[in-house]
# Entry
Amino acid sequence: MARQGRDGARRTTLATPWWALACAALVACDGPPDRTPTLGNADAARGRQLVADKGCVACHTFPDVKWPRGGLGPSLEDFGRQGLIAGRLPNQPGVLMQFIRNAPALVPGTAMPATPMSDQEATDVTAYLLTLKSR
Amino acid sequence: MSQPTSSRSSLAESLSGWPPPVLDPHGPFSNTVTTLAWVLIALVTLIFVLVCAAMWVALYGSDELRAKLGGERVVRWFGLIIPAGVLFLLLAWGTTMVAGMTTIKGDELRMRVSGNIYWWRVSYLDSAGKEILADANELHIPVGRPVVVDMVSEDVIHSFWVPKLGGKMDMIPGRTNRLKLQADKPGSYGGQCAEFCGGAHSLMGFVVVAHPAADWQRWLDTRRAVAPVADLGVEALRGRQLFSEVGCAACHRVAGTSAQGLSGPDLTHVGSRRSLGAGILPNNRGTLIGWIGDSQSIKPNNRMPAYRSLPAAELNALAAYMESLR
# Structure
């Protein structure tokens, strides 16, 4: 009996840190919190139109734009799966939104110029870029 | 679909939208084309209905009617006399109506557009036909006044077409055709090469900008005046130096500088153009960089090589210089 009780006690003491670890693991799955503006009101279709209207297509290739298929800058055909922007910045909505409006401020020396855009336009283009994933 | 924005390239504007540009005239000469189109559509619809009715009679009509339909009289009238008459009247009416689109009175403004492999050379002429101002890919006209445009080609056959302002006119090497354009309202009107001229034919666009008459005269006087050397920033100055160093000046002309190349578009006022690459891209820093660095990916087989040897700073400098040429 005493032995049994001792076993039970040991079990409970072991169980507590195991649960804590499981919870920690679950939280870790979400990655570091992304404190960025939400893309809730974004319109990816409008973003696609803007990519043509602003002339992004002069340097970048997009999967659903037939022409022009600019070759000076990197192809964005799989951009939504890409980890880094310009090989330097985390590919997160907030960062991307700043980068498309003012690339030289974030990546000095880049040939990609600052492009004037309203908040809504930047949100739409960001949403569109993040949809670009090849199957 | 979202509404086209002002930065949208003329090419997209000239070929899309509702009503289709061909049925949306903005001047007397395009109005002629549209009237002709509607009359033809109406006539053809009438004939279609008549043929359907005849078919119905042939299949389900009474014996008497079917005998009449198969008789010699019907064949003589509906197969010969009426079609010949209608076609003759249509030809006479069409020819008289369309004649107004090319008759030249002599007091019109004169301009010239020369087709080149995937771009257009533009010249403003005096009454004697001498060039007074050179430009490319964009034609500025006054509202409410007919303009006679000489159509020539410097290589293959092209066709000039600004659907909202006038008819379509071929540009044939060794020949000068004439087309009249007129806009009733100020605005930008998109155009497009309408004769297959090579791989990037569909990327050969054009813009006509119509100004109120007084504004147009002012615009012309400013353009013709000797441009004062603009205060260039450091970047644009570096760009001007690079323009001759990397070879741009061999093909492009910038009035008032040593750059006097004539085989490519005149860049004296490139910074003020509404589009880039002959009506296919908005004109801004980014598209300038993209075009200079790799125009071949944008418009395959155009005659400008891709300058992939230029680093980002030099591309930016050249683009800044282009932006300063207003």
The interface with chain A takes residues 1-2, 4-5, 7-9, 12, 203, 276-277, 280-282, 284-287, 289-291, 293-294, 296-299, 306, 308, 312-313, 315-316, 319 of chain B (CB under 8 Å). Residues 32 and 98 of chain B are 7 Å apart (CA to CA).
